[in-house]
Amino acid sequence: MEAKSTISVDEAEIQTDASTPAVNAGEYEVIHSKSPVFYDLYTRKTELQHQTHYCPGCGHGVVHKLIAEAIEELGLQDKTIIVSPVGCSVFAYYYFDVGNVQVAHGRAPAAATGLKRACPDKVVISYQGDGDLAAIGTAEIIHAANRGEKIAVFFVNNAIYGMTGGQMAPTTLVGQKSTTSPFGRRPGNEGFPIHMAELLAALEAPAYIERVALSDNKNIMKARRAIRKALEIQKNGSGFSFVEILSPCPTIWGKDPVEARRWVLEKMIPAFPLNVFRDRVPEIPSMEVPQRSVEEVLELAAKPEGQNASVQKHAHHFKDVKIKIAGFGGQGVLLLGQLLIEMGMREGLEVSWLPSYGPEMRSGSAHCHVCLSKERIGSPLVSRPDVLVAMNEFSLRKFAPEVVSGGLVLYNSESLPPDFVAPGIQVIPIPAAEMADRLGSTKAANIVMMGALLEETECLDARTALSVLEDKVKKVDLLEVDRQALAAGRLFIDNNAHVGAVSQPDGFA
Amino acid sequence: MRQLCKGNVAIVKGAILAGCRAYYGYPITPASEIAEAAAFYFPQVGGTFLQAESEVSAINMVYGASAAGMRVMSASSGPGLSLMQEGISYLAGAELPCVIVDVMRGGPGLGNIGPEQGDYFAMVKGGGHGNYRNIVVAPASVQEMAELTMLAFELADKYRNPAIVLTDGFVGQMMEPLDLQLSELKSPDKPWAVKGTPETRPNVITSIYLETDELEEQQRKMEAKYLRAQQAEPRSELINTDDAEVLLVGYGIVSRILFSTVEALRKEGVKAGLFRPITLWPYPSKSLAEAARKVEKVFVVELSNGQMLEDIRLALDGNVPVDFYGRVGGNVPSVAEIQEHVLARIGAAV
Q1: Pick from B30, B39, B139: which is nearest to B77 by CA?
Q2: How far apart are CA A457 and CA A469, in angstroms?
Q3: Which residue has the higher pLDDT, A502 or A77?
Q4: Domains A59-279 and A317-497 share a fold
Q5: CATH number, span A59-279
Q6: Distances A394 to A369, A405, B335 between C-alpha atoms, Å
Q7: How far apart are the CA of A81 and the nearest CA of chain B, in angstroms?
Q8: How distant is the Cα of A188 from the closest Cα of chain B, in angstroms?
Q9: How far is the CA of A465 from the CAs of A123, A339, A461, A469, B144, in angstroms?
């Protein structure tokens, strides 16, 4: 179906607005007065500093006036910040004698969020046009509204891109011609005009949403009340308010100011019905975060005796030890590495821990690199481990070839795979999972391996291990299992390993 | 007191000590721990944490908070930084200070989440539109993640410019001891900010200058401050460079691997040294040229296709032969791998 063109120049005769008293030329007095919320002289402009840059009949001038008067009436001039957008109103800061922040196209609600959160008791206004708010900045306005940011948004909808010379806006009417919809807006191509007020009214948080129009004096007075109300809501700290203002753009529409107003009345209002879509103070549950000092939050103070107190210095017989720990996610692979570096740190060593990291999905492999050193640690990446703790067969096969000659592999299993060979390294199978199981929790298999690692390498003191476990394991019963697991791992090495040593110097088991 | 800490978490701790009380961001691997730590710490010390709807919004929230004079930050990884580039250009144009962390991952596009240094051009050379610079610091340890974040806040305020903490997945994810003292930095007085007060009412924050002369004047002003930063702020670390015949150059995680490589090479009898830039912009070109004055060859190692390499070539101006070794895709070279490369190249040169 071909869309019907709904835009046409009205031929009706121009009527004098009934509210304007008839005057004869030369008999009336021109009174130049304006709200003190406007600068006396617009010195940020380079020329014509006594007038705005808006075209005759443009809605922005009217909206500016209504906002300025509302700010004045509510006594907010010293606490107001206006965020000006991209579009014709990019220069709102030429005129408003308030704090001014100019932002990128569409991002005013985000910048206003940052401002309002920084200055919660101030008044922040986001002034936006239709391209800004309803096209490029759709995400920003929806989410600011959804969060109930306590800002006031004035949305000037004139169904066209004015500043850039008449391109289609998201609110351009069906059939309306623009430089980028030269055949008229075709819904099959560009979609229908977007109704922002209705869209935002679907959200829970907004306090006030109304659409008004600058079509005639009666509606302008309604717009005036709506703008004032939005600022009152913010003054009271009640919530997010949004006023959509249907506004004339005579220059781009190719109409004179009076025709343009009538076009708002006759064409825009039927497409964008005027209404109060939301007017209530939202119920937002108060969920305060307990406040603490920086020292407390960052745990900068020395801990009570026991915690982190350096355990009697262990006589480290190495310059550095590089350990790789590998297994399935869930086997405590990463935790074992963290426990080891905590121990190393308490024993006064330099330590580093580097995890393999990946998408947080189940059944993946996990491994970590642990360095313990008496000196500054260079690469935290362990490409050639001195010790490999392999919690499963996959890890054994994958990483054992990396172990340095004369290095050690601790393998979580009763026995080695029959075809497994590892020339020049010592491989000790430890049935850690079964042992931990017998102690009451398979989860302690990593601690069994830790016991074995400490006993076999003597790289760290078992007493440090105990003190670290005591600090880190909060559950009493689990701590007991871990204690026993640690002891069992050490005992296993003492009793079995050297008897059942599996790897000969030539590497063949 | 020394405490174990993840690199990403150290950034947040440093930020809080720097007086930052506002964080706006969006999660992404491998930078998410920064958002998570900020979500935990910031609200407890009276700060704001907000998970934005996108990085585009996050950086504009940063813009708003910075305009109000707050110390504010965001963090992401490459794809998120691409989205922030618009905002960073506006921040630079409006001369708004802030700190942005890029925990680099593999690219381009979705790439992968392994560590890479492929965002060097985007962060160090700009990336957004227009004539501006980012101040860029490159931590190589968990301790530096905190300390250089604090420095980034100081430099950002000093020059009224965005400062980037450029790091990678490995430094972000690794844990090391972190030693922090309770000495909070204070955000300086910012008379230019817009705070909704009578004193700040005359202020305007903007990056639009319609008149060509006005924009040129504004840019000249920015150039002048960039020049001041280039004179005052380059930082680097030199290790074993005094007698070095071979100079290795790398930043971030690569510098850690090169530190070990220098040790390994010296064991082989090769007089190797390490030059580690700590600021990537301004680049420590003078120190590099000085350190390379007597060496026979400079080896640049990056997790990229050779991005910092260009700055090194500029700094050395053809006076010293420069060799490049790069790994990409999330692969990280081992010490042995680089050692072998260096030995092969200097062997070939003889």
Answers
A1: B30
A2: 19
A3: A77
A4: no
A5: 3.40.50.970
A6: 17, 21, 25
A7: 6
A8: 29
A9: 57, 8, 7, 6, 28
- H helix or E strand, kind and range, residue B79: helix B78-93
Closest-CA residue to A99 (of A73, A118, A88): A118
Q: What is the DSSP letter of A190?
A: H
Q: Using CA atoms, how far apart are residues A31 and A171, in angstroms rounded to an integer?
A: 37
Sheet with B2-6, edge to edge strand ranges:
A426-430, A408-412, A387-390, A320-328, A365-373, A350-355, B175-179, B2-6
Tell me which residue in A118, A355, A381 faces B332 most closely, judged by beta carbons. Answer: A381
Dig out the tokens for B230 from the structure. Answer: 């280039």
pLDDT band at A154 (very low <50, low <70, confident <90, very high): very high
Domain ranges of chain A: 59-279, 317-497
What is the number of other CB atoms lying within 10 angstroms of the CB of residue A356?
17
Give Cα separations from B130 to A132, B88, B126 (angstroms): 21, 11, 8
Dmax (CA) for chain A in angstroms is 119
Distances from the Cα of B179 to the Cα of A250, A407, B2, B217, B324, angstroms: 65, 33, 4, 44, 35
Structural element, H or E, at residue A276: strand A275-279
Q: What is the pLDDT of residues A352-371, one digit of tens each?
A: 999 987 665 556 789 999 99
The minimum CA-CA distance between A414 and chain B, rounded to whole Å, is: 32
| CA gap A118, B67 in Å, rounded | 9
Fold of A317-497: Pyruvate-ferredoxin Oxidoreductase; domain 3 (3.40.920)
Say which of B30, B57, B177 has its CB closest to residue A110.
B57
Residue located via tokens 């070109």: B285
**B2-232 and B237-349, same CATH topology:** yes
Confidence band of A341 (pLDDT split at 50, 70, 90)? very high
Nearest Cβ partner for B64 among A100, A101, A342:
A101
Examine residue B27 and say whether the peptide bond preceding it is cis (omega within 30 degrees of 0): no
- Decide if pLDDT at B348 tops 80: no
8 Å CB contact between B5 and B12 = no
Q: Which positions in chain A touch B4 (Cβ < 8 Å)?
A: 338, 341-342, 345, 351, 353
Candidate from B60, B69, B201 with C-beta closest to A111: B60
Helix (H) and strand (E) counts in chain B: 12, 16
pLDDT for res A508? 40
Query: Considering only CB atoms, which chain B residues are within 8 Å of A77?
Result: 201
Q: Are A154 and A188 in contact (CB under 8 A)?
A: no
Contact between A101 and B67 using a beta-carbon 8 Å cutoff: yes
> What mean pLDDT is predicted for residues A46-72?
96
Instruction: Please give the structure tokens belonging to residue B54.
Output: 């996108």
* Domain boundaries of chain B, sorted by first residue: 2-232, 237-349
Contact of B328 with chain A, judged by CB distance below 8 Å, is answered with: no
Q: Do the Cβ atoms of A115 and B177 come within 8 Å?
A: no
Query: pTM above the 0.90 mark?
Result: yes
| Residue A23 CB neighbours (<10 A) | 9
| C-alpha closest to that of B63 among A230, A81, A235, A45 | A81
The topology (CATH level 3) of B237-349 is Rossmann fold (3.40.50)
**Residue A80, both tokens:** 């107001």
Beta bridge partners of B5: B176
Architecture of domain B2-232: 3-Layer(aba) Sandwich (3.40)
Cα torsion for B189, B191, B194, B196, to the nearest 10°? 90
Q: Residue A18, SS3? A: coil
Contact of B178 with chain A, judged by CB distance below 8 Å, is answered with: no
Closest CA to A266 of A255, A278, A276, A277: A255
Average pLDDT over residues B282-309: 98
